């Protein structure tokens, strides 16, 4: 048994209308890799924010190294040896690596010394990084290294990591795990937040599972199956996704040598992308975020207009058409960003339904809107996809992320598309709802539609896709059947551990 | 037209005087914007500084006290903007425009009794040795204290933003207030300090107009200088030395066109009067047209520590 480092007793935190944490107690040993598991909204973030001093608990206490620990702010937490790697928003894109690191330290050394220390630590832990580069130009994996090195320079006793692998390729994940094991062996405790169950089973020795703000179980994840963990998180058993056997039909969507510039200054241009999707088939497109996923969706939905022959739908060139024309013909899409792209935040669900379904569902007559028809369609979507909302008049902004995601996907699926393109269909959705969305996509394909699923969740792609390809810097890899594909091969298709090769050249 | 009447030494010397109010206001606004706040009230703060500085200088007989009072008055005015936008989360654009209107109205109210009066002005302060150099001496080194101070302020802002930890934190807050908050920095407090500094600089700029450049009080005497300062910050890509170039360019063209008018050029006066605005914006657009603009990523976005 390890010596106790951090002991948490009865932590409670309530926000107006929600209890984020209720009487949470557990302890972390020195050098222990401890997983914190739970669905979105289970209270993981609030809990670690209390440990890091960003949020003050309503009641309960913490002890660090045997003495009372109640950090007033992150500065106090860092001074006591607690460091945190954030999931996102803690880096400054316009600043250099060294400046970003300095901002996260209590007493940063002089710039020259700091640059030297960054190089030293990055070599010790196999995380190559140039302190002078601007963070805006770094890949997701490199950005995470900046955060980790920022923490390591403070020699923390407890390192909190919030979903660190969501942006990494499998090879980069392996490198990260080696670093974490090395840290653990040196006596640094790690509190690891994730909902990727297989990762937790390979890395962590203890897992605390939260549901609706309460601890439901503390167990050893190595002795528990991923399915058991998932059911503990959700609190119920749910149906696994089943695939119907089907023979692919005629080509419905064909993309020929698609090249397009990104409308976004920091975006990625598409370079010579070609693929075909047949009726009844699901094509999965993976890759690390920011490698052209948004641009590919935009080019297929009509937001980016290209030369007509670059995108063909049922043999008709549609590359030159805008979104309305493509929607009317049956080529539908659902983008990644729910609020502001897929849905207008301040408009009601009914209004949002009209925005994409007007033409196909006949919700518009002679330029006038058919409100009762639109309400009916919206209610159908809400019922079929189990969207938890008071009613179709609710503003999109008022829905939780997962519920809005169900609505946004459901709205397209219910229009009986001929071709459906979705980006990150289950992002931020709980396991049961994610299974329902995936099942709906498979069902759609079973009825003869062609489906393109763009996602960063490899498990999801393995579950729904018939064939797999990866986007890497705007180029599409070879397309391979999912059956028999190994994680190793997928990683290489995604570009491997890109920056590692660079590091060898420099060394 | 007789170009011979235009003396290049006098031209350069007077362009520095003419540019100083805009330079002061612009460098202050640049710091505000670097912290992620867009304060469109520069014009209102400048004219408040102009009237308060003038009134205090006339009543006390000390232009130094006038400048100090102007800086304080405009900084306090800017704090009202700060409280509205940072604590009450009002819209920055609307609040800034409101601040301009308040400043214009307030200044004409305060300034009514002072119209037509003359104020004591700042004496010239020739720098020893440097001022005696031929040509360059009278051009650059025979000015009043505020001209030197304004240039020193540009250098200080540049060095402060680039080399100090406070400057790094200020830039970080303007770049991503969520990230800065997550690391434990007091976003609202840092922004309020930046707004206060920006207000003080605008006040100094306004007082320079009414105490040195003109030196007299007339209603609405800033005549858009605050707006030009705002434009210069944007087109200078938020870089201190480019702000200096922009302000001097504007001052230079202003002085040159006045000289041309005096020399009796045949170009209509309207074209000459609009030329400083046109040329400044044109040149700065060309400078900033090349690639990276460097606007602080959180500029104008409201911050609330709710997550």
TrEMBL record, chain A:
A single MF term (Gene Ontology): ATP hydrolysis activity
Ranges for domain ABC transporter: 6-237, 253-498
Pfam families, per database record: ABC_tran
Domain of life: Bacteria
InterPro entries assigned to the protein according to its UniProt record, in alphabetical order: AAA+_ATPase, ABC_carbohydrate_import_ATPase, ABC_transporter-like_ATP-bd, ABC_transporter-like_CS, P-loop_NTPase
CDD domains associated with the record: ABC_Carb_Monos_I, ABC_Carb_Monos_II
Keywords: ATP-binding, Cell membrane, Membrane, Nucleotide-binding, Repeat, Sugar transport, Translocase, Transport
Bilayer topology annotation: Peripheral membrane protein
Subcellular location: Cell membrane
Gene Ontology CC terms, in alphabetical order: plasma membrane
Alphabetized SMART domains for the sequence: AAA
Protein name, as recorded: Nucleoside ABC transporter ATP-binding protein
Gene source species: Marinovum algicola
From TrEMBL, chain B:
GO CC term, one of those recorded: plasma membrane
Membrane-protein topology: Multi-pass membrane protein
Main location: membrane
InterPro entries cross-referenced by the UniProt entry: ABC_transp_permease
A Pfam family of this chain: BPD_transp_2
Cell location: Cell membrane
Protein name, as recorded: Nucleoside ABC transporter membrane protein
Natural source organism: Marinovum algicola
Species lineage: Bacteria, Pseudomonadati, Pseudomonadota, Alphaproteobacteria, Rhodobacterales
